[in-house]
Amino acid sequence: MFEQLGNLIAYQWLGLDASTKLGAAVQFFVMDISKIFLMLVLIIYLMGLLRALLTPEKVRAYVRGKPKWLARTLAILLGAVTPFCSCSSVPLFIGFVEAGIPLGVTFSFLIASPMINEVAVVILVGVLGWKLTAFYVMAGLFVAYVGGVIMEMFKPEKWVEEYVWKIQMGEMAQIEEDTSLLGRHRYAWGEVKEIVKRIWKWVVIGIAVGAAFHGFVPEAWVVENLGGDNWLATPLAVLMGVPLYSNATGVIPIAEAMMSKGVAIGTTLAFMMSIAALSLPEMLILRKVIQWPALAIYASVLAVSFTLVGWAFNFLAL
Amino acid sequence: MKVIKVLGSGCANCENTAKLISEAAKAKGVDVQIEKVEDMAQIMGYGVMSTPGVVIDEAVVHAGGIPDKVKIDSWL
After folding, report:
1. Is B11 a known active-site residue?
2. Does the distance separating the beta carbons of A167 and B51 come in below 8 Å?
3. pLDDT by residue (tens digit) across A161-189?
4. Are A285 and A90 in contact (CB under 8 A)?
5. ipTM reported for the complex surpasses 0.90
6. pLDDT digit string (tens) for A128-157?
7. Which of A82, A73, A141, A142 is nearest to A101 (CA)?
8. CATH of the domain at B56
9. I need a surface site. Which of A27, A199, A278, B71 has the fewest CB within 10 A?
10. Å from A47 to nearest chain B CA?
């Protein structure tokens, strides 16, 4: 359906030729923008209707006081289903510290949360299929777990800003929720507006980049330089992803274009994880609660893990 | 007079929330005093981790996201 819409607008209305670079790019852009935004609205609305969107307050309550392995597993799984806005990482970090949740577990949450979320996962299945989605989720959960464990070995407590330890958190607010059908609808629609407003530009940029890649980058060049044989492509993809930032949903069209042109699967996955989870703006926000050495270690641990995971997938796929 | 506090560290959503509440109050002719709480320690003191939050008479009535019109009207 979306492919036909792309064909209709790009080739018939705009009169572009399917064999030209521009034609292919425009067709991809129209197809993905209609497909991804429709899915985005539908999924967020449905999740909102079920009130299935978790809040950080609830996550904190679940994780608090659990033995470490269980706390970490819960933090990662809950992180994966909590729609996360990097603007809330500071209160989240403080709230976790205040609840006595170990820092390593908090880092596991901070890694998992932007990388995996239920909205991105459903769209990923719709665009790239089950197999790649399963790989991406598995890789993300794995990196979040191991990354948190490694962070802990550096004893990052010494880098936490003084004032964080002093904050006393009040009794968790119990907010009454309107659970009637109308109340649910209003809540769900509010979520759609808020989340779409927050991420639409990342998604549009992602689709534009994906379309440009799809239309203008020659396949032969990609296979030769970014295929599974070139092991250097994976760390390069990770490095490229660090200054670049996008929401996990915005990364999907880029991954789609990369895969269709023959970029190796591990390299694509590493690039996706790096863009979604490692970003300068997020680091700057976290700097309010933790000092540079800890952030540098955090970024390095993630970059190395993404590269290793990417290599592992490339190796297995060969 | 009702004292309504908007909790949030100066993000766009928090500004919006404060604006929406004052507009709704004006429309209804209710006299309210809106205070913005931007200090992280105070925000956390209310048990709120996801901002913006709204506090009326020291009770948290909303957290995480911009409240909708119906909800705001019910507070006034």
Report:
1. yes
2. no
3. 988 888 888 776 666 677 788 888 888 88
4. yes
5. no
6. 889 889 999 999 999 999 999 999 999 999
7. A73
8. 3.40.30.10
9. B71
10. 16
